[in-house]
Amino acid sequence: MTTVAPASTDTSDIPSVVAKLRKTFATGRTRDVAWRKRQLEALEKLVTENEGAIAEALEKDLGRKPFEAWLADIASTASEAADAAKNVGKWTKRKHRLLEKAQLPGRAWIEYEPFGVVLVIGAWNFPFALTLGPAVGALAAGNAVVLKPSEVSPASSALMAELVPKYLDTDAVAVIEGDGAVSQELIAQGFDKLCFTGGTEIGRKVYQAAAEHLTPVTLELGGKSPVIVAADADIAVAAKRIAWTKLINSGQICIAPDYLLVDASVRDELVAKIGETIAKFEAGSSGKKIVNERHFGRLTAALAATKGDVAVGGGSNAANIEIEPTVVVDPALDEPLMTDEIFGPILPIVTVKNLDEAIDFVNSRPKPLAAYLFTKSKATRERVIKEVTAGGMLVNHLLFQFSTTKLPFGGVGPSGMGSYHGRFGFEEFSHRKSVLTKPTRPDLTTMIYPPYTDKAWKLARKLF
Ligand code: NAD
């Protein structure tokens, strides 16, 4: 059984687990497309057959409702795995390229090669989707994989450690549980590829440690994802969509609406409608559960420090580590709510005079993982798409850019590098090997072999 559990500091087994995976990879077993397909189908089964246990673990770790557990962790991982199982045969095919005249005769193609043994370090907020999801791309690409779930969601981590060996090839896929020290010990093994999901600061440390081994990295990081609400937005729908997506998983989502930039002419209407929506969606709830005391303390301190008007909520309950859904209007731009990623159920709303001000605001800050816009106007939409840089963009809704296999998901600059989902995950975990084959006869290069005559030079100038 290739599981090391649950060790926060005991790292003694790590080299032998990695050595075992290396040995398996060297046999070529994981390159076989039928093997990849079987692993992907098994991964889909792992999440669908254990829906109840997964929902229970998510409830224990995060206080998540079963519907949200299914939508965000189970359905998304299952559809990624199913899509990859269906398409992996097509994805692995050589991509032939037409050569320039000077390169003829010859044939050229891209050969997709697995990197080898891949390390996936997951985050706690969607522990299954953000650990097993990247594994889909890694397995589709024919790699052996070590999964390191987050220790901050221990029930989910333990469940993955229990289930993965039951469904997947134990000689090629291992779960190693533990904290940051375990992650660092793993990175020190010198993996062939690493995918990390987590905060930007830890991402920096991971990148530095990986550089020691020149391990290529995919960094899925965080940041403050803005929502621009233009004067012509459908305010009733915008309010519902923003309130819903801010409160899923208590706002602990990397692509949650972090703050709003709202045109002054619709600000009050939007605040009122978000307040009404929250009252309806959260009727009977005592507050949103925060993952742990550290994060609860960070959020309540940010709220206590605000210079904005608390228009909705504002309360918290330390005994249950719960925070009321909260809306803060016009906080100071240099206070924690506006400088740090919120990752909780608090929504700051910044009033702007016009679209120019909103675009300038976003572009004057670190490039976000997601940028959102509510508008009915095509011209406004096109301007924001062209002028705002972000990992991804969604117009008139939120979050759904994560749940399609048709688009790459990833950040830019401080919100990350590299991307995955669908074919993009396969590509991310594959080395694109360039292959050029040439016949030996006729040996046309004879025309330019040394000694270099003027005639050969003239010909070479024409050709190249
Ligand atoms: P985190 O950075 O605290 O931890 C992520 C992982 O890193 C965990 O598995 C943890 O054990 C490990 N880790 C901790 N210290 C480490 C170290 N020194 N070296 C190596 N690994 C270490 O992140 P988190 O709190 O789990 O998640 C929240 C952050 O992640 C937010 O910023 C959020 O925006 C971001 N996030 C990004 C995405 C995305 O897809 N881009 C998804 C979810 C979360």
Automatic annotation (TrEMBL):
Pfam families: Aldedh (PF00171). The active site is at 220. InterPro entries: Ald_DH/histidinol_DH, Ald_DH_C, Ald_DH_CS_CYS, Ald_DH_CS_GLU, Ald_DH_N, Aldehyde_DH_dom, Aldehyde_DH_NAD(P). The keyword Ribonucleoprotein does not apply. Coiled coil: none annotated. Residues 8-435 form the Aldehyde dehydrogenase domain. It comes from the Bacteria. Keywords: Oxidoreductase. Belongs to the aldehyde dehydrogenase family. This is Aldehyde dehydrogenase. It comes from Mycolicibacterium arenosum.
